[in-house]
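This part of the workshop introduces the protein records we will be handling. A record pairs a protein's sequence with a compact description of its fold. Comparing a sequence with its tokens is the quickest way to learn the format. To make this concrete, we reproduce a full record directly below:
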Amino acid sequence: MNSPITGTAAGVPFTALPPVGDAAAPLIVTWHMLDAPRSDAAFAAALPMHDLPAWRVHLGMPMCGARMVDGTMDAGTELMRKDVLMSFLYPFVQQATEEFPAALASIREQLPVGDGPIGVLGGSLGGAVALRIIADTETPLFAAALVNAAIHMRSVVDLFPGEYPYDAESEKAVDSLDFVAKAGAIAGRAPLLVVSGELDHPALRTDAANLVNAVGEGAELQTIPGLAHPLADEPGIEPAPQLPQARAVDVALTTWFRRHLT
């Protein structure tokens, strides 16, 4: 088992897990949760997909991991308190999506991943980033996967206390992150696995099923028994031993991506 490689790609921190032998191989790019595991290094430890003949490059989300302010998540938490949608959820997804093309180009320069189609994987809010890459870009893909993903952003906003005060701007923002509504743009882009924890938030479970139904052919739903929303124990910033439920997700993802690797 090769050691993780850490670095930055156009300013985005990453943790890369090479295939055996550090050989040239296809690329899978991931975006982590903001629940535990909430850093690229911790996500790599939770879902390493060790048996895949592919590079797995786990990108850091804004203000997480190496980009935390003063070494804590406090600054991000303050943004959440200020305005959960317009200061936190939406701009995080927007920034991660906008910085991806340059990060991908840098990864291709640094690692022997070639220039072929990539796989994408996102967990929780990182799932919204993966879905934006699928629905809103023309990045060539060979397969995609989501884990307890933010599929319908209104459902995520509703998880926070109080009734959110939508206005014209925030309505437009939240609707831009409704991927059930964008199912037509997702269908046919790449085979899509939607992993849903049996104990995840009920609304997110419903969104997962709705997305698979709306996309139709090429999309599959897999429920993981006993899995709640997080994939790791708190605080979820540093790499930690893989939990049994995360192991089950890891097996599902490894099987999925192996099936679709060219």
